[in-house]
């Protein structure tokens, strides 16, 4: 199978949020689509804390990310677990139907779960739209833009995860967001930071 062709199937980039007993949860998702005029489908990995919260609360929200969104959004929501940290604590939020959404997003959609489909690794939740609002007029970030311009990677529990490869003999991976630096990062000045999550070069590991 040639997985490279799958890179040509682009998607939006969203923060999917929910709550567990009033505790906020959220994760990055790119597999979210509008399937009818009032129904959204979103795919969430079984191991994600957000999956558990959607199962318990019966609802979820999508914050639509723009191309100019804070660079810390994706590493925080995509490469950390809500079981360990409150991902929303350093970002401005709005509460919509009891769910946290990002104030700096283009807008949000709130859904009530009406059905679900289990795959080997993910749950596909179907949700009826109960609330939505535009917040900012910006260009939506696509998954293709995230890879081509932001140079971002996918965590292992993302629906579109594929093992990243590099032809360089020497490379380093950021332990926070997964960004791959091709070459010898030790030759960079001490002020060097990851272009995705802005962490210093001490957070990189040789691969």
Descriptors:
single chain; Pnp Oxidase, Chain A; Rubrerythrin, domain 2; globular; 3-stranded antiparallel β-sheet; 7-stranded antiparallel β-sheet; mainly beta; 12 strands; 3 helices; 2 domains; 207 residues
Description:
- With 207 residues, the chain is mainly beta.
- It has 2 domains: 11-147, Pnp Oxidase, Chain A (Roll); 166-207, Rubrerythrin, domain 2.
- Helices cover 10% and strands 36% of the residues.
- It has 3 helices and 12 strands, in the order ββββαβαββββαβββ.
- The chain has helices at residues 49-57, 73-78, 143-148, and strands at residues 14-20, 23-29, 32-36, 39-45, 59-64, 93-96, 99-102, 107-118, 122-134, 171-174, 180-182, 204-206.
- Strands 2-1-5-8-9-4-3 form a 7-stranded antiparallel sheet. A 3-stranded antiparallel sheet has the order 11-10-12, with no helix packed on it.
Total domain count: 2
Helix proportion: 10-25%
Q: Find the CATH topology of the largest domain.
A: Pnp Oxidase, Chain A
- Any idea what the shape is? globular
CATH class of the largest domain, please?
Mainly Beta
Give, in order, the helices and strands. Answer: EEEEHEHEEEEHEEE
User: Architecture of the largest domain, according to CATH?
Assistant: Roll
Determine the N-to-C terminus distance. 26 Å
- What order do the strands of the largest sheet run in, or round the barrel if closed? 2-1-5-8-9-4-3
Mean pLDDT: 85
Structural class by SSE content: mainly beta
- CATH homologous superfamily heading of the largest domain: Electron Transport, Fmn-binding Protein, Chain A
